[in-house]
Amino acid sequence: MEALVALVIGTLTACGVYLTLRGQTFPVVLGLTFLSYAVNLFIFVMGRLAVGMPPVISSVASGYTDPLPQALVLTAIVISFGMTAFVIVLALKARAELGNDHVDGLNREEDAPR
Amino acid sequence: MNSLASHLPILPVLLPLLAGIVLLALRNAPSGLQRGLALAATLALIPLAGALLAAAGSDGPLVYRLGDWEAPFGIVLVADRLAAWMLMVTALVAAFALLHAFRGTDTAGRHFHVLYQLQLFGLNGAFLTGDLFNLFVFFEILLLASYGLLLHGGGRLRVKAGLHFVVINLVGSTLFLFAVSTLYGVTGTLNMADLAVKLAQTPPENLALVETAGLLLFGVFALKAALLPLHLWLPAAYGQTSAPVAALFAIMTKVGTYSILRIYSLMFGADGGPVANLLAGWLMPLALATLAIGMLGAVAAPTLRQQIAYLVVSSVGTLLAAFALASTEGIAAGLYYLPHTTLGTAAAFLLADPIVRARGAHADRLESGPPMPGAPVLGALFFIAAIALAGLPPLSGFLGKFMLLRAALESPWLDWVWGVVLTAGLVGVIALARSGSLLFYRTLSSDENLPVPRATDWLPAAALLGTLLGMTVWAGPLARYADATAVQLLTPQTYIDAVLGPRP
Question: Which residues contact B228 (CB under 8 A, 6 or more apart)?
Fold first, then answer.
């Protein structure tokens, strides 16, 4: 199971890095989303993988799983969700103001350094 | 634990948060009321920071346990000398930048004051927190507020610069999370003091993981601090935004430098056992290269505000070069230089605003323009700001650089530090002299009717320059405080004992 999870995180990160380096804003936003998925999984896994364990110490269970990464990942999900919403709105605004969806807003003469 | 004084460390975090929420509720109130409230909340941070400076100076680090949970299980705020020092710089910059914003920036869009207070909330929290994940959260708060402030007022170039700024910081946040969670996975703690203890006992099989996480964190902080080669976002972002926001952002790069100083003195410092002095080979060359590139950028900059932004980059280089010496004298020199350069660049950004306005269509492009109305006042202030930024005597920048050069005497980096700092100083003088003469002396005759700057346009900048004068006059006590701060940073056991030791 560890190998599978590691592969998933690695693939998500690789896709995220590739997409973030693209020139259009939409793939960049997707890339950032992939990166945040990868890191959220990564945080979660840092509490070690366990199956069927409660996140509290209990007399009926044979053990427990670390609850802290689960709390951390909730915080990280909320933050990355908010940030993604923000960056989408910003990308739309950039599309409207710059007239194209390139991250550098190219091909407009008035932006050329004078 | 009932008296108000014991809650002192959390007040600089709570006050801007509450003020921000109240201002949000009052968003349709008359702008005079909003301004008054925002100003009162911002000014109140100065005496709070002063009280913390005094308390941290006399009793050692103040530890505030949120919810009274014992460290390392609960989150702690730690107000030591360094944190209080940073809070004071933030409070001063924020107050003067806000006064400048009252000229009209705050009404150019919605929610300026709310975002401004939340930015201060994030900044103060980042300086005070003693928990690594909490540091991440405060980073996100200050970044989200800064995105809003950066874009405030709108405009094509601002949106373009803002998009780069947001994307690069989101990537930085992802890396921060990777680093923090790796550290948690290895050590099982996020409390900085506890991490320092655990990392010093890292078993050899985990060493590679911990070092990877440590260097990844350095990459994140280097991005926030605009250290070479991660500085490229800064000139565009700072050069395009409104003057008060750029002035407030002068403190933002210092959050990165603060984090580098904090993490790499506490967790990866000389007492770090197997992970000791993790940055020893990295920080100094990068800092000196940043200093050089920043100054070259300042010479090459096509506009005044970009030139100041490049001077921010070079000041980060100077600061980190001082911290990289890792000696009491070096860190003290950096700590004395930090308020100087923050207040100085903030003043320069505020001053650039009336200069831009007084030049009509030429705006802040560094070229000959029509004679400026009000040139004697603006020119004199620009001259003082230039002296401060170039680090010439008699202002505090010279003292800071002198302390840095003296501290480097004992270092193996002596030749490099002296060579780069002195050459960069000369280049900085040339760059600022060139823009000064282009703006104020080599003017073209024109009958353009330009607005005469009013006193309120340049008074906040002048007041900031006045604080530099204060820093020069009271250099003795300030240098002593910086010295004691450096001693405290180089003995991380004080911090660890304060957080993890028995309660007083």
Answer: B286, B289, B290, B293, B317
Residue with tokens 């070092």: B211
Q: Which of B2-6, B249-253, B339-343, B352-356 shows the lowest mean pLDDT across its residues? A: B2-6
With a cut of 60, say whether residue A113 has pLDDT above it.
no
Please choose, from the candidates B138, B136, B45, B139, the residue with its C-alpha nearest in 3D space to the C-alpha of residue B84. Answer: B45
Residue B56 corresponds to which tokens in the numbers above? 């941290």
A49 inside domain? yes
Structural domain including A17 reads 2-55+64-103
Structure tokens at B298: 């300042």
**Considering its fold, how many domains does chain A have in total?**
1
| Rounded Cα gap, residues B127 and B9, in angstroms | 11
Residue A76 lies in a domain: yes
pLDDT digits (tens, 9 = 90+) for B65-109: 888 888 788 899 999 999 999 999 999 999 999 998 888 777 877
Domain with residue A83: its CATH number is: 1.10.287.3510
Mean pLDDT of B380-404: 88
Binned at pLDDT 50, 70 and 90, residue A30 comes out as: very high
As for how many domains chain B has, the answer is: 1
Strand residue runs (E) in B155-200: none
Give me the percent of chain A exceeding a pLDDT of 70: 92
Model confidence pLDDT, tens digit, residues A98-109: 888 887 776 555
CB contact, 8 Å: A90 with chain B? yes
B319 domain-assigned: yes
Find chain A residues with C-beta within 8 A of B369's C-beta: none
What residue type is A105 in one-letter code? G
Considering only CB atoms, which chain B residues are within 8 Å of A20? 167, 171
Rounded Cα distance between B390 and B370, Å, is 26
pLDDT at B375 exceeding the cut of 50:
yes
Alpha-helical regions (H) of B60-155: 81-101, 112-128, 132-151
In a domain, A81, yes or no: yes
Is the pLDDT score of B448 beyond 90? no
**Is the residue at B293 inside a domain?**
yes
B391 backbone dihedrals φ, ψ, rounded to 5°: 75, 35
A76 touching chain B per CB within 8 A: yes
Domain ranges, residue B434: 280-473
In a domain, B37, yes or no: no
Residue among B41, B79, B55, B44 at smallest CA distance from B5? B55
Q: Are B396 and B468 in contact (CB under 8 A)?
A: yes
CB–CB of B156 and A87 under 8 A? no
**Residue B3 domain-assigned (yes or no):** no
C-alpha to C-alpha distances, B326 to A67, B59, B263, B283, B330, nearest whole angstrom:
38, 24, 13, 10, 6
A110 within domain boundaries = no
Residue-wise pLDDT tens digits, B476-493: 899 999 999 999 888 888
Closest residue in A to B164 (Cα) is: A103
Write down the pLDDT at residue B313: 92
**How would DSSP label each residue in B119-143?**
HHHHHHHHHHB-BHHHHHHHHHHHH
Q: Which chain B residues are closer than 8 Å to A5 by Cβ? A: none
Q: Would the pLDDT of A114 be above 60?
A: no
Locus of tokens 């004084």: B5
Instruction: Calculate how close chain A gets to B368, using CA atoms only, in Å.
Output: 14
